Amino acid sequence: MAKTFGFESTTDEVLAGVNLSGKRVLVTGVSAGLGVETARVLVAHGAEVVGTARDLDKARRALAAAMGESASKVQLVEADLASLASVRKAADDLLARGKSFDVIIANAGVMACPQGKTSDGFETQFGTNHLGHFVFVNRLVPLVKSGGRIVTLSSAGHQISDVNIDDPNFERTEYAPFTAYGRSKTANILYAVALDNRLKSRGIRATSLHPGGIQTELGRHMTPELMDQMRARWQKTTGQAMPRFKTVPQGAATQVWAAFVAPADAVGGHYCEDCHVCEVNDDTNTRAGVRSYALNLDHANALWRKSEEMVGERFPL
Q1: I need a surface site. Which of 10, 52, 106, 112 has the fewest CB within 10 A?
Q2: Which of 185, 208, 293, 307 is catalytic?
Q3: CATH level 2 (architecture), domain 20-311
Q4: 72 an active-site residue?
């Protein structure tokens, strides 16, 4: 009987008995938090890991602290998701090496940051969380093996807001950090939906997930005021206090579960949380599940076309 995992499951528990020797995995954002833990557990189970980071020295320190001498087994590639020039260079470097991947985990991201722009002029959260990965992963699709998976980290924060395809950069909308975060996290889910639809005929599946609430560097912009807003939103929505935070190994469990343990057909094109596939739930009085707007294929394809327009590059996958 297949093991059942949930909120408290850790990466080590999810991968217990799983041999990843011969698997090659790309993980974005290996300089802190979930990215470091993901790299650690994958290497421990025999996988070859390529990790990206904006700051390679920071990544080396973080990996060494978590993995000791095994940190040298993580191959590092410099990539700043807030710069399409950096993303394209990193992708070109990996394409030039010509080595295939079994799994890509789009883990990196920013959250609830002050209003700003990427080096290409995009709103920071949409530009970093969505457009940076959109270009990077799409360019690397030729390296993904048949039977491979692409796992995109989203968040329950997608419930805050759908994407605004007509005004992605808040040029006509009043900026709010959590609204921008919600838009970017909905974009992450829609991207996985569109990508899965394009690649499943090749045997490649894409999925998205909420790792849970974890205290990592992702929350570095979380001022006391923003924390109060988040608690108030949760209380208003659910009538309950916010749940406890997960540990980092618990937070990274769902992404390794979706990448290596869950059946591909079960997770492909879907959204996961706590090591299970979530049901659609449009009841705004609850936080459970995934909003239907985030799984709508027509909406996902519209975002794909808008994203191509914004980055000036077409991906007819």
Answers
A1: 10
A2: 185
A3: 3-Layer(aba) Sandwich (3.40)
A4: no
